[in-house]
UniProtKB/TrEMBL annotation:
Residues 1-10 have a biased composition (Basic residues). This is Pre-rRNA-processing protein. Component of the RIX1 complex, composed of IPI1, RIX1/IPI2 and IPI3 in a 1:2:2 stoichiometry. The complex interacts (via RIX1) with MDN1 (via its hexameric AAA ATPase ring) and the pre-60S ribosome particles. It comes from Penicillium arizonense. GO terms for biological process: rRNA processing. Belongs to the IPI1/TEX10 family. Residues 1-33 are annotated as: Disordered. It is found in: Nucleus. SUPFAM superfamilies: ARM repeat. InterPro entries: ARM-like, ARM-type_fold, Ipi1_N.
């Protein structure tokens, strides 16, 4: 009796209509077979079918666009290609792209987090013509100062190395551009911890440079860069008797008698001779001003930075070791600048 009732209940179950609920998909039958399939394909939106290889200028522009790639190895390889292309070009031949086009892609890499990318960037910068670099110093310095005060120790070291190259390549333009004197000196004091008398006494206020910072090697680089920067800004100008005689002869031959010192009244050969007037820029404060003459830079240095420099150099000499030896180059530049004074 029980088995017949069970069979009857199972037959009724086969003919029961399931209740459907709103928002829920219909249940699939037990004998359902999935017939869907997926296909993978590679779609090229732009495909070149030309038989001729791309020109060197096209490849240069392509690698220049790859400097913003997410892969650090891609950025490093692109920098290596650009460096090789610029270094191997014929003498006195123009660059594949002007420096004004190349620099905007290079500047963010000063703050790149990969050491190999920054090292290759420095190699590329050294291959650029110095005459072209002089006209773009004002674009380079803000990124260099941001790197000098970066939280990462290796980025600070790389920024100091780039600043050393910039002073060597265009020292006069580096110290005389807008913000190039006061703001850069403030960065040096921040890195060295020499801003105040209290901070110069404690090594904890000095920016850390990682494991090698305990040995003082990165600080030696900073002091070397500071010595070169001060020499370019307030160092004693080099005047040779032979050069002065030649220049006087050339001037007298170029400008006949009654004209005298006419070259001083001519338009400058620089790309922006009236940049110091700031006709179309934002208003500048004292730190953002251009100090084009040595007298102006010496006046600002004596009033704002000389006491802090002397305190910091005294502490570096007392520390001894590599720091003490590196501080002698900065002290030598300061002694010569003070002996020469504001100028003749």
């Amino acid at each position: 009796m029980g088995s017949s009732a069970k069979r009857k209940k199972e037959k009724q179950k086969d003919f029961q209509k399931p209740k459907l609920k709103v928002g829920k998909t219909k249940a699939k039958p037990e004998n359902y077979t999935d017939t869907s399939f997926r296909s993978k394909s590679i779609v090229l939106t732009q495909q070149s079918l030309h038989l001729a290889a791309p020109s060197s200028n096209t490849q240069f522009t392509h690698n220049l666009s790859l400097l913003s790639a997410k892969s650090d190895s891609q950025r490093r390889d692109s920098l290596a290609y650009l460096t090789t292309t610029i270094a191997s070009r014929p003498v006195n031949s123009p660059l594949p792209q002007p420096v004004s086009v190349i620099l905007p892609s290079l500047l963010p890499l000063i703050l790149d987090g990969t050491t190999s990318v920054r090292t290759q960037l420095l190699k590329l910068l050294k291959t650029l013509p110095r005459g072209d670099v002089e006209d773009h110093v004002a674009q380079l310095l803000p990124y260099v100062r941001a790197g000098m005060t970066h939280l990462a120790a290796d980025i600070r070291v790389s920024a100091v190395e780039i600043l050393s190259w910039l002073v060597e390549a265009a020292g006069e333009q580096t110290v005389s551009c807008a913000g190039g004197w006061i703001k850069t000196l403030n960065c040096f004091l921040s890195v060295l911890g020499w801003h105040t008398e209290e901070s110069s006494r404690w090594s904890s206020n000095r920016a850390s440079f990682g494991k090698s910072g305990s040995q003082g090697r990165p600080m030696v680089k900073v002091l070397g860069a500071l010595a070169d920067f001060l020499d370019a800004g307030i160092g004693k100008p080099f005047t040779g008797n032979a050069d002065s005689d030649i220049s006087e002869d050339d001037e007298s031959s170029a400008w006949p008698f009654p004209l005298c010192q006419t070259a001083q009244h001519m338009i400058s050969d620089s790309s922006a001779p009236y940049a110091y007037l700031n006709l179309f820029g934002q208003p500048r404060d004292e730190e953002g001003e251009m100090y084009e003459t040595r007298e102006d830079r010496y006046r600002v240095f004596s009033a704002r930075f000389h006491p802090a420099m002397e305190r910091g150099l005294k502490g570096a000499r007392e520390e001894g070791g590599e720091m003490g030896r590196a501080s002698t180059s900065v002290s030598k530049v300061l002694k010569e600048a003070i002996a020469y004074g504001p100028g003749p």
